[in-house]
Amino acid sequence: MRRRCSGQALSEFAVLYAGVILPLTFMIVFVSEMLWVWHSVVDFTRDGARYAATHCWMADGSNVAGLGGYMPTHVPLMIDMAQFQTGAAGIQVQYWQADMTTGGLTPFSCDAGDCSAGCVPDAVSVSITNYRFTRFSGFFKLPPVTIPPFTASVPMESAGCDESGNCLP
User: Fold this and answer.
1) Which of 62, 106, 112, 118 would give a disulfide with 66, using CB separation of 3.0 to 4.6 Å?
2) CA-closest candidate to residue 125, choices 101, 111, 108
3) 3-state secondary structure of 82
4) What's this model's pTM, rounded to 2 decimal places?
């Protein structure tokens, strides 16, 4: 004896698919994108710190973070990369000098001028602030996710100067 199918299994699958499987799939895709962007921003911060450690010190950090500087012109391919190119996401550069009395780091300053062999800090920190992951806001009409600030600190290497004291930005 054969039972007739009334379509109950199909309607149960449709409810399960629309209520659980489809949202779970979108969640996995968007969380994966956000983790990819997170990794890209961390790597981008480290790359900017490496550049700052091997190039001339400038009091305003414009050779690293300015709109024509290294970081805005070398943004890795990622979602929302325009935030770095337009200045919507903040890129901050801070140079440090070692304080011999306390053993800590203090902000660096030098009267000899930018990009000279007489002005070489001991360390540099590059920070990314105010980056907002906006992928959710356009698709699901949700507010953007603000990524926490990233900071990478490295000791200065050559500071853009060669052995004879000639410095190039």
Assistant:
1) 62
2) 108
3) helix
4) 0.79
What does DSSP assign to residue 119? -
In this structure, are residues 101 and 107 in contact, taking their beta carbons and an 8 Å threshold?
no
How wide is the angle at C-alpha 35 spanned by C-alphas 30 and 36, nearest 5°? 95
Residue 60: which residues within 8 A CB-CB, separation 6 or more? 66
Structure tokens at 116: 């000279």
Tokens, residue 124: 């540099």
**Does 128 score more than 90 pLDDT?**
yes
For the chain, the residue count is 169
The pLDDT of residue 110 is: 82
Question: What confidence score (pLDDT) does residue 1 get?
Answer: 58
Q: How far is CA 109 from CA 53, 89, 145, in A?
A: 16, 26, 36
- Highest mean pLDDT range out of 45-49, 60-64, 103-107, 145-149? 45-49
On the 0-12 / 13-18 / 19+ scale of CB atoms within 10 A, 12 is: exposed
Kindly state the helix (H) or strand (E) to which residue 153 belongs, with its residue range.
strand 150-155
Token pair of 147 as six digits: 């990524």
